[in-house]
Design brief:
The chain has about 170 residues and is α+β, with helices and mostly antiparallel strands. The protein is built from three helices and five strands; from the N terminus they run βαββββαα.
């Protein structure tokens, strides 16, 4: 199997664009959005992004920060292509944090739409630090009506938020 070519930022992409024409992809609802839609974000690694801010003692870029940056890139790619009153929510991550990035490093994160089915969108995500791929995988988002989603939150206020698994973990804590 040949390796997947790296996702590259080619200049600053201010908005998600069609991969061939370079023009915004327009959708009339959570209707089909062109595959290849991509968003590139650049981030400088700061103190709050380090693993030391996440209960670790090594001063390198933390995995949860990379996951969040990948989510942001995918979310921004979709943002202008959903109808008014709609938003996207994160659903799944399949990622590998493949290498460290030090404080001050400039990390480029690219999300490229590789599959769309109904209101579900799958992105290939990748982060590079210089010429090194430090993070790669896939992230899925779902398109939802914002008002309907927010109205469901009120019903969660009385929930305990615990599953059988969390109850089983209670006894394992030290």
């Amino acid at each position: 199997m040949s390796p997947t070519p790296p996702l590259l930022c080619t200049g600053h992409l201010a908005e998600a664009t069609h991969p061939v024409h370079g023009t915004p992809v327009v959708a009339s609802g959570p209707a089909p959005i062109g595959l290849g839609l991509r968003r590139c974000e650049r981030h400088r690694v700061e103190a709050g992004d380090l693993a030391t801010a996440w209960a670790n003692d090594v001063p390198v870029l933390a995995t949860p920060v990379l996951v969040w940056w990948a989510e942001l890139a995918a979310m921004e790619a979709l943002a202008g292509h959903l109808p008014p009153g709609w938003m996207s929510v994160g659903a799944t991550h399949e990622i590998e944090h493949a290498g460290p990035s030090l404080p001050g490093a400039e990390v480029e994160v690219v999300a490229e739409l590789v599959a769309a089915e109904g209101r579900r969108y799958r992105f290939r995500v990748e982060a590079t630090d210089g010429d090194r791929v430090v993070f790669h995988g896939h992230h899925e988002r779902g398109a939802v009506e914002r008002a309907r989603f927010v109205s469901r939150l009120a019903g969660l206020s009385g929930a305990t938020g615990q599953s059988d698994l969390s109850e089983r973990c209670e006894g394992a804590r030290t």
